Amino acid sequence: MTPIIGIPACTRMIRDHIQHATPARYGAAIMGGSGGVPVLIPPIGEAALVLLDRLDGLLLDGSPSNVHPDIYQGGESETPDSHDPERDATTLPLARAALARGMPVLAICRGIQELNVALGGTLHQRVALVPGRDDHDGYGTREEQYAPKHDVALCGQMAAIIGKTRIRTNSVHGQAIDRVAPGLVVEGVADDGTIEAVRVEGARGFAVGVQWHPEWGWANDAGGRALFAAFGDACRAYASGLSRAA
């Protein structure tokens, strides 16, 4: 069975036209690593919830944009030119509804931040300015940006999936989890204390988030392959009704 996996798209202005898009590498990782078929979900707010009836999994992908702090009472925006309110209005309800169904959810980069906010947590708007934290943003060429940058200590389900308790990951993000949402369990932490992986406690299906980008070079990375394979297995189980809500 080939699962159908939804990927929320972002609002982009391309040649003076509003378009809906996301990097193709997420779909490539779903097809090659999870054995699924990706479907883009347009940023149309709660109207997108009806699509969950046709999906077997949800991948909350990364994006250059940031969740608007008004949603989590985070004060004035420190990145006013980096918001996508249409995506916020779409992904946060999608995440909550998917979890309520027991649908598998994999959240990556902005996705882990969305998952945390959707469940009641908050974010550091500029993690590099938090005392004792490193600059987690990526610089240089695209290959340099996504090259392994720092270690992450893993535990729990994430360590079981990856098969290690310590891995080296890339790091391409300006924001990060601050207050962890009720119901989220931290399962990955960078050496500077930045939260890098979480699990939804009590979820009826696969529901995890990572701050790094496992979709980048997934085919040559054992951890990335393991994560997408586990996600794909969960989506097939959900499609077969083994974990679908009654």
Structural overview:
- With about 250 residues, the protein is an alpha/beta fold.
- It has a single domain (about 5-125, about 180-185, about 195-240), classed as Rossmann fold (3-Layer(aba) Sandwich).
- It is about 25% helix and about 25% strand.
- It is built from six helices and 13 strands.
- It is globular and about 50 Å long.
Task: Count the E strands.
Answer: 13
CATH superfamily: Class I glutamine amidotransferase (GATase) domain
Mean pLDDT: 93
Question: Strand sequence of the main sheet, in spatial order?
Answer: 4-1-5-6-13-12-11-8-9
Give a brief rundown of this model.
With about 250 residues, the chain is α/β, with parallel strands linked by helices.
Task: Provide the descriptors you would attach to this structure in a database record.
Rossmann fold, two-stranded antiparallel sheet, nine-stranded mixed sheet, alpha/beta, globular
Task: Give me the secondary-structure topology.
Layout: E1 4-8, E2 10-14, E3 17-21, H1 24-34, E4 37-41, E5 57-60, H2 85-101, E6 105-108, H3 110-118, E7 123-124, H4 142-145, E8 150-154, H5 156-162, E9 166-169, E10 176-177, E11 184-190, E12 195-200, E13 207-210, H6 222-239
Parallel strand pairs: 1-4, 1-5, 5-6, 6-13
Antiparallel strand pairs: 2-3, 7-10, 8-9, 8-11, 11-12, 12-13
Helix pairs in contact: 1-6, 2-3
